[in-house]
Amino acid sequence: MFDWNRSCSYDEQQKRRFHATARSRLKKLAAELALPPGSFEVRSNRAGIAVSGEVTLHHDRAYIQVGQFGMSSGHGILIRTCKGRKDYTGGPNHFVALTMLDDIPALAAAVRAITAIGRDAERRAA
User: Fold this and answer.
1) Is the Cβ–Cβ distance between 87 and 96 less than 8 Å?
2) Is 104 in contact with 25 (CB distance < 8 Å)?
3) What mean pLDDT is reported for the chain?
4) Cβ contact 101:66 at 8 Å
5) Structural domain for 117, as ranges
6) What is the pLDDT of residues 25-49, one digit of tens each?
7) pLDDT of residue 122 exceeding 50
8) Structurally, how many domains does the chain consist of?
9) pTM score over 0.85
């Protein structure tokens, strides 16, 4: 398992692994949520040497961002609703632990509970 809590600060190898692994997990999350192709994008902002930067899954109705911004609280995944992929502020912020990237079904359940997108949530809304 990837060590999500090992700092990327001033560690280029760790930052490279962090971004690659987070991108991979967010793509798995999109598959778990059964998001239609073209309804989302996964992008990465490596930022400066002193921070992790962030990896974002931006769906038409949800914004999910992974970073080491909540290290003291153990939180590092931001989940919120949005109105399209040009909406970068969206609804209220919700945070879950970075380690949820190691349990994609549990992370998908959290995303569905917060945003009502994805498999099961979309069927209930119909």
Assistant:
1) no
2) yes
3) 89
4) yes
5) 12-125
6) 999 999 999 999 999 999 999 999 8
7) no
8) 1
9) yes
